[in-house]
Amino acid sequence: MTILNLPDPIAAYFAADQQHPELLARCFTAQASVKDEGHTHVGREAIQAWKTGASRKYSYTTQPCAHSHDDGVHKVRSQVAGNFPGSPVNLEYRFRLERGLIASLEIGA
């Protein structure tokens, strides 16, 4: 298992992930955005609702395995496995941080 030294808000995001949508939402700025599966969710309330919905729909685990930082973007490659079509998949999470919180997140292949 690879141990990554992730910035605090990103580590907190992955720690809270599926089990604690309310804690996950606190990792974001008030006006943050998340882009996932063709939809954009803006603000902590919308981000919490997005994560709550995903957690109800699927049971999954997320294992970050690589991290890079370039031009203000933290890229985290993660294996996501669960009860969804095509599992497991490797996804890239592109985080932008602002004042110690996540300002934006884009999730894609």
Lay out the secondary structure.
Layout: H1 8-16, H2 21-25, E1 28-36, E2 39-42, H3 44-57, E3 60-70, E4 73-82, E5 89-98, E6 101-108
Structure description:
- With 109 residues, this protein is α+β, with helices and mostly antiparallel strands.
- The chain has a single domain (8-108), classed as Nuclear Transport Factor 2, Chain: A (Roll).
- It has helices spanning 8-16, 21-25, 44-57; strands at 28-36, 39-42, 60-70, 73-82, 89-98, 101-108.
- It has a 6-stranded mixed beta sheet, covered by helices on one side.
- Strand 1 (28-36) and strand 2 (39-42) form a beta hairpin.
Alpha-beta content class: alpha+beta
Query: Which CATH top level class fits?
Result: Alpha Beta
- Spatial arrangement of strands, main beta sheet: 2-1-6-5-4-3
> Outline, from the CA principal axes?
globular
* Domains, number: 1
Short key terms for the protein model shown above:
single chain; 109 residues; alpha+beta; Nuclear Transport Factor 2, Chain: A; 6-stranded mixed beta sheet; 26% helix
Summarize the structure.
The chain has helices at 8-16, 21-25, 44-57; strands spanning 28-36, 39-42, 60-70, 73-82, 89-98, 101-108.
